[in-house]
Amino acid sequence: LLLGCELTASTKSYTFQVDEEDDSDHILALSVVCLTDGAKDECNVVEVVGRNHENQEIAVPVANLKLSCQPLLSLDNFKLQPPVTFRLAAGSGPVHLAGWHRIMHREDASFEGDNDFSEEDEEELPPIMPAKK
C-alpha cells in the first residue's frame, strides 16, 4: 500500500497508526520527502516521532529541506514501526512525504514445516568442464 501525506503551516503533523487489535506485523517505509508548490525559501525540518524500547516518546529529525539548495531528499525506504507521527518542526511547508506500508500476517510469515526439500526439487547442474586451450 502506498502512503502519502502533506505537512503545512496549518497541518503540522500526521500520525500513522494501526488498529491495536490487529495482530499483523506492519512496516512503514518512508521513501521521499520533498517541498511542493508554494514552498518558501526557508528551512523546513521534518521530524519522526515514535517510541523507544522504554516506551518514551522520541523525536528524530529526518529532513532539513530548503527550496534553493535541497528541495528533495530520498530516504531509501527508511523503515518505521507504527504508530509514528511525522511533524513539521520548523518552516511552513508544504512538505510532501511518500512511502509504502506493508502488512504481514503472522500466519503467512511462518515457514515451519516448509524445509522438507526432496532431491526431486533440486535442479540438476551440468558438470564443470575444463577450459579449452
TrEMBL record:
Keywords: Acetylation, Chaperone, Methylation, Nucleus, Phosphoprotein. GO terms for molecular function: chromatin binding; histone binding; RNA binding. InterPro entries: Nucleoplasmin, Nucleoplasmin_core_dom, Nucleoplasmin_core_dom_sf. Gene3D superfamilies: Nucleoplasmin core domain. The keyword Magnesium does not apply. Residues 111-125 have a biased composition (Acidic residues). Residues 3-102 form the Nucleoplasmin core domain. Residues 111-133 are annotated as: Disordered. Transmembrane segments: none annotated. GO terms for cellular component: cytoplasm; nucleolus; nucleoplasm. GO terms for biological process: chromatin remodeling. It is found in: Nucleus, Nucleolus. Belongs to the nucleoplasmin family. Interacts with NPM (via N-terminus). Forms a pentamer with NPM at a ratio 4:1 (NPM3/NPM). Two pentamers form a decamer. Plays a role in the regulation of diverse cellular processes such as ribosome biogenesis, chromatin remodeling or protein chaperoning. Modulates the histone chaperone function and the RNA-binding activity of nucleolar phosphoprotein B23/NPM. Efficiently mediates chromatin remodeling when included in a pentamer containing NPM3 and NPM. This is Nucleoplasmin-3. It comes from Leptocoma aspasia. The gene is Npm3.
